[in-house]
Design a protein that fits this description.
This protein is α+β, with helices and mostly antiparallel strands and 161 residues long. 48% of the residues lie in helices and 19% in strands.
Length: 161
């Protein structure tokens, strides 16, 4: 069974609705109300991206640890493996500013292959079967998505399915 990470853009009105009525958020996720441009799929690459950003497979500090431990948890909205989390627009802007300064090749050089081999709980455990380009593309998807959300002044919903 795989764990994938999905990101959804939310405007401030939708964020307020999600926080006030978590049951409606569950319905929205099941019905797939988001347009393709308002969502991004990191697939199984999410944990590798977290590791490349933070150097750890565990929870980490803000803003680099945002995929694993950032934002506001909506305990009543459990989809897949974890309760969903929301990053407010100002948090998205901060993450975007951090990611926009990063060089993908340097990330791999800093926390790449050898460190990944030494990590004990890195998901997916079959990550070696993936090409490096898979993780680079996922990181670029994430960076572009955060930039688009920042430009639209949107928040982000983080869901692990």
């Amino acid at each position: 069974m795989s764990v994938t990470c999905e990101l959804f853009q939310l405007d401030e009105a939708k964020i307020a609705e999600c926080l006030a009525i978590p049951d409606q958020l569950m319905v929205d996720l099941e019905e797939g109300i988001w347009e393709e441009a308002d969502r991004a799929t990191l697939g199984e690459a999410w944990h590798i991206i977290h590791f490349l950003l933070t150097g750890t497979e565990n929870f980490s500090d803000w803003p680099l640890g945002f995929l694993f431990s950032g934002g506001e948890v909506i305990e009543e909205a459990i989809v897949g493996y974890e309760p969903v989390r929301i990053l407010q627009p100002e948090q998205v802007k901060e993450v975007d500013a951090t990611l926009s300064k990063m060089d993908t090749q340097k990330l791999f050089a800093q926390h790449g292959s050898q460190a990944m081999l030494e990590a004990e709980e890195l998901y997916p455990d079959h990550w070696k079967a993936f090409q490096k380009v898979y993780f680079i593309q996922a990181f670029e998807t994430l960076r572009n998505f955060m930039q688009a959300a920042t430009l639209r002044q949107n928040g982000i919903l983080i869901v692990y399915i």
